[in-house]
Amino acid sequence: MNVDALRLIAELPFSGEIVGPSDGDYDAARRVWNGIADRRPAVIARARTRADVAAIVRFAADTGALLAVRGGGHSLPGLSTCDGGIVLDLSMLNDVVIDPDRMIATVGGGALLRDLDAAASAHDLVVPAGVISHTGVAGLTLGGGMGWLSRRFGLTIDSLAGVDVVLADGREIRVDADEEPELFWGLRGGGGNFGVATSFRFRVHRLGPVVVAKVRYGLDEARAVLERYRDLVLDAPREIGSAFTVSKEGVSMTVVSSGRDDGRDRVAAFARLGKPIEISIGGHSFIELQSGSDDAFRWGRRYYAKGGFLAAIDDSAVEAVLDGVATAPTSDAEIYVLQLGGAVADVSDAATAYTGRTAGAYWIVEPVWDDPADDVRCLAWGRATAARLVERSLTGNYVNEQGDTGDSVARDAYGSDTYARLLALKRRFDPANVFRLNQNIDPGGPVRTDAVGSTAADQVGSLGLSS
Questions:
Q1: What is the DSSP string of 318-351?
Q2: Which tops the pLDDT comparison, 90 or 235?
Q3: What is the pLDDT averaged over residues 71-79?
Q4: Of 8, 257, 281, 467, whose CB has the highest number of CB atoms within 10 Å?
């Protein structure tokens, strides 16, 4: 992007803040969550209003400038930033308004999960969402959104009542089941392919009592513990949500009971799967639960992840997990498995763009490290370990947990029928692929480049994360 383009941006009707390389806060403003994504955008536009968002989108569409949209900045492949283009930063659009009478939460496109959780919890209400509180609401939602309460209340998109969207031509529209219902279908799992979500409307749910069990077992017991775990969760009520992580440190298990007074007895059963090294039952508020992994996955560390759906946690899956952990490159390299089913499976695959409703669990291979010298071995371990689990997984995937990019990622995630439907939406709402820094559904034809000639694929490829 050249100097003239920067001058034109400064002359736009824009009430927010424009940050460029010469500004003192540029280095702080350009940082995103994944430390690998060390990018230098030509300009960071911090929008204050929806009109600001529309102005930047129109500018990018008119000039062909590379446009990255940053909600929470949590994109695994670094797709919320870019080199030489525009970062549209929504962080000032972070208001959360809870209407307990209508049971609706209105949430700005730049809000984080902690903003939503805090506002809703004040009324003993909740929107089912992710498990790290500094995640952005927008990115999580547009991909689907799964977490501790998914078995009870469904995915985040299953509570979505409507979205305000700025389209590629700068128009602002309201999308819900009645207005643009096909686009509403696509926004529930199709990622950021169709526009910038500036506001969400969620149905909220009564949370009730919450009891949390955290249990850690030694690695020497892992096989037996995981076999007993899978038997235990087969009959678990949907008010129980659970996940386990396997690393060189052993098996760490978190079990959440919500909405039931007998939750303590139910979660205690997960502490009897072997000989626990550590046990903690109770003593966690929902807010504490949601922020419990924040430090381990703090900003600035280096991340890769690839996930997939399992019909069930069978012997073959257990074997692949244990084999992978045996060669883990760092102590923070782990394999995480989240229990699904329950309310997630109440909705058909065809009802939303998200794929994976029939799965019993979702796995994520996620090396986490701090030293750039470990990049090659951590990425190699992540990809190789994930490949073994993919062989045992269902067709389809979750776009939010993919550290690689490329046409095959979206196609593999959605399957042919859903992808074709999403492609039709993309061609209708973004035929020039203005919104291409995402798990992209390419509408076809040449992709325009920014002033320095870098395509979206170039941007991601130089992260070392592309397939």
A1: HHHHHHHHHT-SSTT-EEEEEE--GGGGGS-GGG
A2: 90
A3: 97
A4: 257
Angle of helix 50-63 relative to helix 3-10, nearest 10 degrees? 150
Tokens of 282: 């109770």
Measured torsion, CA atoms of residues 27, 31, 34, 40, in degrees rounded to the nearest 10: -70
Quote the CA–CA distance of 264 and 371 in Å, as a whole number.
41
Q: Contact, 108 vs 127, CB < 8 A?
A: no
- In whole angstroms, what is the distance from residue 80 CA to residue 66 CA? 11
Task: Identify whether the C-beta of residue 323 lies closer than 8 Å to the C-beta of residue 388.
Answer: yes
Cα four-point dihedral sign 74, 80, 81, 82: positive
pLDDT of residue 4 exceeding 80? no
Going by DSSP bridges, is the β-strand pair 302-303/306-310 parallel, antiparallel, or unpaired? unpaired
Residue 453, number of CB atoms within 10 A of its CB: 8
Q: In angstroms, rounded to a whole number, what is the distance separating the alpha carbons of residues 129 and 4? A: 42
Pairwise CA distance, residues 47 & 55, whole Å: 9
- DSSP H/E element including 206: strand 205-206
| pLDDT band at residue 453 using 50, 70 and 90 as cut-offs | very low
The set of residues, in sequence order, having a beta carbon less than 8 Å from that of 164 and lying 6+ positions away, is 50, 172, 173, 174, 175, 197, 198, 199, 200
Band of residue 127 on the pLDDT scale cut at 50, 70, 90 = very high
Question: Contact at 8 Å (CB) between 142 and 79?
Answer: no
d(CA 128, CA 117): 9
Report yes or no: 18 and 42 within 8 Å, Cβ to Cβ: no
> Do 259 and 248 touch, CB atoms closer than 8 A?
no
**Chain centroid, CA 242 distance in Å:** 18
**More confident: 10 or 323:** 323
pLDDT of residue 2: 53
Q: Return the pLDDT at 5.
A: 62
Element spanning 423, H or E: helix 407-429
Reduced to 3 states, what is the DSSP secondary structure of residue 201?
strand
- Report, as an integer, the average pLDDT of 214-233: 97
DSSP 255-266: EEEES-TTHHHH
Over 50: is that where the pLDDT of 165 sits? yes
Mean pLDDT along residues 314-326 = 97
Q: What is the pLDDT of residues 5-18, one digit of tens each?
A: 667 787 888 999 99
Residue 3 above 70 pLDDT? Answer: no
Cα 335 to Cα 416: distance, rounded to the nearest angstrom: 28
Gap between the Cα atoms of 34 and 74, Å rounded: 7
